[in-house]
Amino acid sequence: MRRLVLILVPYAWLLALFLVPFIIVVKISLSDVALARPPYLPQFDWAEGIGAFLSELDFENFVFLTTDSLYWKAYLSSLTIALVSTLITLCIGYPIAYGMARAPEEWRPTLMMLIILPFWTSFLIRVYAWMGILSSEGFLNQFLLWIGVIDQPLTILNTNSAVYIGIVYTYLPFMVLPIYAALDRLDGSLIETAEDLGCSRLSAFWLVTIPLSRNGIIAGCFLVFIPALGEFVIPSLLGGSDTLMIGKVLWEEFFSNRDWPVASAVAVVLLLILVVPIVLFQRNQQKQAEAEG
Amino acid sequence: MKIQTLTVATVLAVGAASVTAEEVRVYNWSDYIDENLLAKFEEETGIELIYDVFDSNEVLETKMLAGGSGYDVVVPTGTFLQRQIAAGSFQKLDKDKLPNLSNMWDVIADRTSKYDPGNEYAINYMWGTTGIGVNEAKVKEVLGEDAPVTSWDLVFKPENMEKLAECGVHFLDAPAEMIPAALNYIGEDPDSHDPEVIEKAEGVFMPIRGYIQKFHSSEYINALANGDICVAVGWSGDILQARDRAAEADNGVEISYYAPDEGAQMWFDQMAIPVDAPNPEAAHTFLNFIMDAQNMAAASNYVYYANGNKASQEFLEEDVIGDPAIYPTEAAMNNTFTTTPYPAKVQRVVTRLWTKIKSGT
């Protein structure tokens, strides 16, 4: 009985906060756009019954997505931006987490605090601050001009570079924290053993530390990649007009075209792009665990 | 007039005193009111005023179509108003509660009835034109003394834009105004709903898109005022606010606004009450307050937009009522065009074209 309750809680969570909203979105994606409030038809009507309601739904909006190259280009560009920023975040985040885990015990709470501290300021304000830093009259250009590295201000704001900077900056703590958690639990004697058995420090790092922090790396990468893929605020504030991301396409479908059905179809496809690889990955992990166990 | 205002205020204040903790939520464009008016409203009526802002009709429209926005007064532009009325987003005004309607200006009411027949759903707040804001000194430095500042040539001719790109050009991120402007420039009907005609605008924008620093509908005010950019296609009053901010900062930047010779779009921002407004009573009180001649004049004096309130004109400052950029001459008024809402299919063509113009894809 207790076990059943324990299982029910996460499933109820999943049902209420994922499945129900998802079904609503799928339903809208199968509807037709209309000048009404809300702007799609059919509206569900108990009197007509579920059968009549379902018969009015169709996949037209999904077919529409294939007729315009804009959509797959936007998906592809979002995937690239999310993937590259995840890799950059990993390259910066791992050494930070490693340094934290290796720091003297009494420093660690302070270091942890420093990682979390930026969250005390609103995300939006921090992104706006980057606009001030990156603009052509901004701090960064002023500084570079002052030390004489450049003699013309660099155009960073409103380009893809600014989007990468924004995403890496924003999501860095999500990469550092899980990796730190994994490294913190790592048994130091394992590395000593490896070194005693003839490993150099570098190969002990590659052969012992990295594999043992793998779960942290995977968790960190998911935590960065997933929100970065659908990111809207960062590209719209820091990106240029040619920064193509699916979040912006969604915005345009929703706000400019008032086409909630097509917007929902875009969102459903985005979710599939995210969920399918994750499920496959999980399967693979499970199989591996079984094979090892 | 003053006594009359006071009487109205007293009546409202007494009326409001009987209801405690009443509030009215207003959703208006950014940089679009004298904030002293907000305090004055609370003082006179005892109604708590919650004031939010937006910078695109699209955002407002989505809230209206979704319903349950929680706002009591919103300010869509005429074309958007027309479509939202058709979608059933607004309630009819109770004109008995709006005695100040008698202050309104028939010339403008006539034009707004195109969107809202009989002005049943909305009152005019401000109106203006979409044109070009210019940093005179910088533009002349780049293009020479005879820069075509009064013509759309300034921003639609690639050879001009190529040079202007050096000092920075912003365009409105508003396809419903930029595409009609381009169509008007090439001699097509700016209000065309024919996809083939609309797509001709692509030919105007594609050669110049690379020279446009940013498509944005509110940043250009500060960017112009600070001298970060030298040209912006924007809304009349916003550009005049930039002129004012630059003058206040005394930074040597001089901004002018031009409604171009080939014709500029004229638009009307209308105040309306959502059908599901939590407090329609207070919303009417707010509308009546805004239509007070002195209040409306204070708003226009502050934001440099013309209003649809005839009675307010005697309270307008000379640099507002006397400025043809704000209150155009009759000839200039006739050199404007208006547009009507796009049907859904055509809207898709317009949005897609705009995405292509902005992103190149």
TrEMBL record, chain A:
Keywords, sorted A to Z: Cell membrane, Membrane, Transmembrane, Transmembrane helix, Transport
Main location: membrane
Stored CDD domains: TM_PBP2
Residues annotated as signal peptide: none
Domain ABC transmembrane type-1: 75-281
Pfam families (UniProt xref): BPD_transp_1
Superkingdom to which the source organism belongs: Bacteria
Name assigned to this protein: ABC transporter permease subunit
Natural source organism: Arenibacterium halophilum
Automatic annotation (TrEMBL), chain B:
Chain segments annotated as transmembrane: none
Superkingdom: Bacteria
Pfam family, one: SBP_bac_8
Subcellular location: Periplasm
Keywords in alphabetical order: Periplasm, Signal, Transport
Family in the record: Belongs to the bacterial solute-binding protein PotD/PotF family.
Protein name per UniProt: Putrescine-binding periplasmic protein
Organism field: Arenibacterium halophilum
